[in-house]
């Protein structure tokens, strides 16, 4: 006779630095990419583009935490994250198995430099991302303040495979289902996906090549190049991309910004492992 076996999920206890939240939904985009939404504490405040520590109970019984950019905007009643699946990753090997109803640790102090406060005023905001570096750039274009600060809001997302283009439908639809930016986004938001290792009906070159050829700027009002007078840049993704473009923008006369001293470009140094 077969009997159902119930696997006990670990019960998490909040700490001074961590609250315990509930997983609300999980979406698996492909075999190595997923997103999930969790409950948001009533007192939790953050700026669109920031990151936070999240985690699960480790094998030693202590919280196992990593920094994750928040993919939902500051006004959302839930909190969303985008993650890779690393089979032997200390956290992601466990995190990829979460289901609705499971518990998860959430830090109480969000932070980060991918925020409008760290940039000087400008006309065009370019958000350059690779892989799951897209996450903060899902938050910012859904924040109505961003459309007040910039005339053009551009998300560039470089991935290896077409199935890695998470949230593609929402961005191609210019956030038409979003209650707070559906009026501004059709005229101000631009989505530039590029797929480097599979056939694709759009761009198939790396971001640096799109910049060199001018293809990245097609359909976007303004010059077909980056201008430190008018353009502001955010970058999140592979270390290679960030190092390459950090050096490039400095050569072009851009200054790196921070929360204490706003500049013309910012990068995020927190990575998921």
TrEMBL record:
Protein family membership: Belongs to the ferredoxin--NADP reductase type 1 family.
The protein, known as: ferredoxin--NADP(+) reductase
Keywords for this protein: FAD, Flavoprotein, NADP, Nucleotide-binding, Oxidoreductase
CDD domains per record: FNR1
Domain of life: Bacteria
InterPro entries: Cbr1-like_FAD-bd_dom (IPR008333), FAD-bd_FR_type (IPR017927), FNR_bac (IPR033892), FNR_nucleotide-bd (IPR039261), FNR_type-1 (IPR051930), OxRdtase_FAD/NAD-bd (IPR001433), Riboflavin_synthase-like_b-brl (IPR017938)
Domain (FAD-binding FR-type): residue spans on this chain: 16-117
Organism, scientific name: Sphingomonas bisphenolicum
EC number: 1.18.1.2
Pfam families attached to this UniProt entry: FAD_binding_6 (PF00970), NAD_binding_1 (PF00175)
Reaction equation(s) it catalyzes: 2 reduced [2Fe-2S]-[ferredoxin] + NADP(+) + H(+) = 2 oxidized [2Fe-2S]-[ferredoxin] + NADPH
Class in the EC hierarchy, top level: oxidoreductase
Cofactor: FAD
Signal sequence residues: none
PANTHER family on file: FLAVODOXIN_FERREDOXIN--NADP REDUCTASE, OXIDOREDUCTASE FAD/NAD(P)-BINDING DOMAIN PROTEIN
């Amino acid at each position: 006779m077969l009997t159902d076996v119930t696997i006990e999920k670990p019960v998490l206890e909040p700490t001074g630095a961590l609250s315990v939240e509930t997983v609300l939904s999980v979406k698996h985009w492909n075999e190595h990419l997923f997103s999930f939404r969790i409950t948001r504490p009533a007192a939790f405040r953050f700026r669109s583009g920031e990151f936070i520590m999240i985690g699960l109970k480790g094998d030693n019984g202590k919280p196992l935490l990593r920094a994750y950019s928040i993919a939902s905007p500051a006004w959302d009643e839930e909190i969303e994250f985008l993650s890779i699946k690393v089979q032997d990753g200390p956290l992601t090997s466990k995190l990829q198995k979460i289901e609705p109803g499971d518990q998860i640790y959430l830090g109480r102090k969000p932070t980060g430099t991918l925020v409008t406060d760290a940039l000087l005023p400008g006309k065009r905001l370019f958000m350059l991302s690779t892989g799951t570096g897209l996450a903060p750039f899902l938050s910012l274009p859904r924040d109505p303040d961003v459309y007040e600060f910039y005339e053009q809001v551009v998300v560039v997302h470089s991935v290896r495979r077409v199935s890695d283009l998470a949230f593609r439908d929402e961005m191609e639809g210019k956030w038409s289902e979003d209650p707070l930016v559906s009026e501004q986004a059709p005229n101000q938001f631009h989505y530039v996906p590029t797929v480097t290792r599979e056939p694709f009906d759009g761009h198939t070159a790396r971001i640096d090549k799109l910049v060199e050829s001018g293809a990245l700027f097609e359909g976007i009002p303004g010059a077909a190049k980056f201008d430190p007078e008018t353009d502001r840049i955010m970058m999140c993704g592979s270390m290679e991309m960030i190092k390459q473009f950090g050096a490039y923008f400095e050569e072009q006369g851009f200054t790196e910004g921070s929360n204490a001293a706003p500049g013309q470009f910012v990068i995020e140094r927190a990575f998921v492992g």
